[in-house]
TrEMBL record:
PROSITE patterns tied to this protein: HTH_GNTR
Family named by the database record: In the C-terminal section; belongs to the class-I pyridoxal-phosphate-dependent aminotransferase family.
UniProt-listed Gene3D superfamilies: Type I PLP-dependent aspartate aminotransferase-like (Major domain), Winged helix-like DNA-binding domain superfamily/Winged helix DNA-binding domain
Domain HTH gntR-type positions: 11-79
Superkingdom of origin: Bacteria
Protein name (database record): GntR family transcriptional regulator
């Protein structure tokens, strides 16, 4: 295969190598599932730098022609339905058909602020006079800077936290690069890393966030980035403490080339304060703040702040695509963030989510199940057998997310429950979860009518 590839390359630039391999793939000479030679061996055969081959491999991975499977190697992509291959798609594939779907990870719609008053207050919506205007409304930038956990050199706004992560990863991570990630972590993050051919390095967590010793060990792999969720971690609910942030910053201080990407996806409904490594390493930290959970998923807005060069790379690349996030929605967000009634609504939601977490956690503990739900809207529940648990829950009409897609390295069987959607019937749901988990639990009374009717 090495000779086949080397013989097909006429242009030894990254673009030429990618084009040659692509032709071989489409011609069927490199069949689906075929393992490609290593970057180093191709470079030696062509008499060029491995960096050039890595760039070609990255282009092919971005186009979906090849995929990297960590240490197993790089392979020609097997045709199939891409959505089914995504870890993200596995979370709600089955539960969405069940009457009680607690798999989604979305906030309770009834706890979100009403957007109608903000829309009425907007008035003149002629907010764009040039396609090359700054991507962030000046009023919104001023409000964001007041709320940011450290003084960012630059800010921009994108279409949600996943859009931010996608653009940051595309701009900073190359094929074959190592990236340190929490274990467990949010599945789409692993999907994004796979898309660029990066290798995730799992980092153990404890009750305060990433463990410093685990991060130190991960740095031995020379990662280009560390990706973490500073509060209300999905799926465990863990929030990083200020002391832990200082400890992690001390570990990273000797690695100035490593970028830290913080995904603060829960924002204002988190009970934990906003904490960032950017307070210690402002030149290395990109902080993402999403408003989907607190103010509404349909706003599709998240802010990114950090080093000017990195933010500019993200903002400038967007000029060739969407250009900017809707300035109308940005104006709505400014109104929501500065409106006293909206602030009270978000505070009410924060208290209600805390109440729901506490109620279900307490009910599960009484049945011998200790689940993680320190903050946010999700609960990480250990089970004896994940598939058995999913089937047991489905038999009761309850859908949850499987724990496997969240894990970089196996941590034992789990399921994730979006506890933020559980409005009542905590004892009844705890009985079902305890049964699914394989725990011994006391029998409860008849199933509450609210859960029986299918309400959340």
């Amino acid at each position: 295969m090495l000779q086949l590839i080397a013989g097909a390359v006429n242009d030894r630039s990254a673009r030429g190598i990618a084009a040659a391999v692509s032709r071989l793939v489409h011609a069927g000479e490199l069949p689906p599932g075929a393992r490609l030679p290593t970057v180093r061996s191709v470079a030696q055969a062509l008499g060029i730098s491995p960096t050039t081959v890595s760039e070609a491999w990255r282009s092919l991975a971005s186009a979906g022609a090849i995929q990297t499977r960590g240490r197993s190697g790089t392979f020609v992509t097997i045709p199939g339905r891409p959505r089914q291959r995504l870890r993200y798609a596995q979370l709600t594939a089955g539960p969405s058909t069940l009457p009680h779907d607690f798999s989604t990870g979305v906030p309770d719609h009834d706890l979100l602020p009403d957007l109608a008053p903000a829309l009425r207050r907007m008035g003149d919506t002629r907010l764009t006079t040039s396609y090359l205007e700054e991507p962030v409304l000046p009023r919104l930038e001023a409000v964001l800077r007041e709320r940011w956990p450290f003084p960012p050199q630059q800010l921009t706004v994108v279409d949600g936290a996943l859009d931010a992560l996608d653009r940051i990863i595309t701009a900073t991570v190359r094929l074959g690069a190592h990236v340190a990630v929490e274990n467990p972590t949010f599945p789409p993050l692993l999907d994004l890393l796979e898309q660029v051919g990066a290798i995730p390095v799992p980092v153990t967590m404890d009750s305060e966030g990433i463990a410093p010793d685990a991060l130190r060990a991960a740095l031995a792999c020379a990662p280009v980035a560390v990706l973490l969720q500073p509060r209300a971690h999905n799926p465990t609910g863990v929030s990083m403490t200020p002391g832990r942030a200082a400890d992690l910053a001390a570990v990273l201080a000797g690695h100035p080339a490593v970028i830290v990407v913080e995904d603060d996806h829960v924002g204002d409904i988190a009970t934990a304060p906003a904490v960032s490594l950017g307070a210690h390493l402002p030149d290395q930290v990109l902080h993402v703040r999403s408003f989907s959970k607190s103010h509404g998923p349909d706003l599709r807005l998240a802010a990114v702040g950090g080093p000017g060069a990195l933010i500019a790379a993200v903002a400038d690349r967007r000029l060739l695509g969407p250009g900017w996030s809707s300035r109308v929605l940005q104006a709505v967000l400014v109104d929501l963030l500065t409106d006293a009634a909206t602030t009270r609504t978000v505070e009410t939601a924060r208290r209600e989510y805390a109440h729901r977490r506490a109620q279900l956690s307490m009910a599960l503990a009484e049945r011998g199940v200790v689940a993680g739900a320190a903050d946010g809207i999700n609960m990480w529940v250990p089970v004896r057998d994940e598939q058995v648990a999913l089937l047991t829950l489905a038999a009761h009409g309850v859908g949850v997310a499987p724990g496997g897609p969240f894990q970089v390295r196996p941590l034992g069987d789990h399921v994730r429950v979006t506890v933020g959607l559980v409005r009542d019937g905590f004892d009844d749901l705890a009985d079902i979860l305890a049964e699914a988990a394989g725990a011994r639990h006391r029998a409860s009374g008849p199933r509450p009518r609210s859960l029986h009717r299918g309400t959340r």
